[in-house]
Amino acid sequence: MLTFKEDIKDTQIYLGLRKKVGWIELNPVQAQRALDNSMKIITVYDDDKPIGMGRIVGDGAVICYIQDLIIIPEYQGKHIGSRLIDKLIEYVNSLIIPDSRMMLCLMCAKGREEFYTKHGFIARPTSKLGPGMIQYILK
């Protein structure tokens, strides 16, 4: 049975899920800091097995980001990611100050654009918005 649990800050689960989808390895200190500084974490379980996770980071007033939307490969294509992103969007909606708007952004992995457009996101650039940009800072 699938369950969605909030704000579990378990570094081993986070690192394990990242590894199962082939993402860049993080060190445990970095992973714990990421979890500790998240506004919201939703972890998906199949019975007791963690199978996915999504995080919200941001300031909670002007901008939030969906970060690390992960569903392990054997559970992809079963609408679990859609249920997870809907819960993350619902959380961000709960933060919006009356008579204002919130930007909800994400960095989409190549080839996953269609998934996010089905959930109301637009790809950049547009005629009014430039491209999303990134810089990796190494130490």
Automatic annotation (TrEMBL):
All copies of domain N-acetyltransferase, residue ranges: 2-139
Organism domain of life: Bacteria
Signal sequence, renumbered to the chain: none
Xref: InterPro entries: Acetyltransferase_Butenolide (IPR053144), Acyl_CoA_acyltransferase (IPR016181), GNAT_dom (IPR000182)
Protein name stated in the entry: GNAT family N-acetyltransferase
Organism: Lachnospira hominis
